[in-house]
Amino acid sequence: MTRAIYPGSFDPVTNGHLDIIKRSAKIVDELIVGVLSNNSKSPLFSVDNRVKMLNEVVADIPNVKVMSFEGLLVDFANEVEANVIIRGLRAVTDFEYELQMSQTNMVLDSSLETIFLTTRLEYAYLNSSTVKEVAYHGGDISRFVPEPVLEQVTNYIIGLKENEDE
Length: 166
Ligand code: PNS
What we know:
binds 4'-phosphopantetheine
C-alpha cells in the first residue's frame, strides 16, 4: 500500500494545491495533506484554520486526510507510516528549492521517496502569497481558491485590513 504525504504551508489552500491533491489521490492509496504548524514563514492563517479550510476542500475525496505537523517532515512521515512525499513543481524557479529539500529529506531518511507532479498550466502562476495580496487590495480571488473557502479567505483578509485601518 502506498501512503503519501503532500506537505506544505497552505496559507491558504489554492486551486493549484487542490489540483495536486486530486491528481495524487488517484495515484496513491492514501494521501495525507500535511500542514506545517511551526512555520518560519509566519503564516497569516492559524494552523487550525488552514486545516479546517483544507478539510472542507477535500471533503468529497475519500482517500485524503488532513493533518498538521510540527518539526521535521521525515519524522512526521515515519509517525504516519508514509513512504512517499509529493510536491508540485510550477516552474524552473521552484526547482532549486525543491531539489534541495528532497535531497535533504533523502539524506535524513533514505527510505522516503519524493515524487514531483508538474502543475497544470492554468495554475502555473498561482501561489498563496499573491492570493493574499490580491485579496488584501480588494481584488477578486474566485479563480484562485476553491469555492468552499472563497468567502472565508476573502472575509478573513478584509477583516485584517479593516483592523489595521482602525
Ligand atoms: O508550502 P511550502 O511552504 O513550500 O512547504 C514547505 C514544507 C512545509 C514542505 C517544508 O518547509 C517542510 O517540510 N518543513 C518541515 C521541516 C523540515 O523537514 N525541513 C527539512 C527539509 S528542508
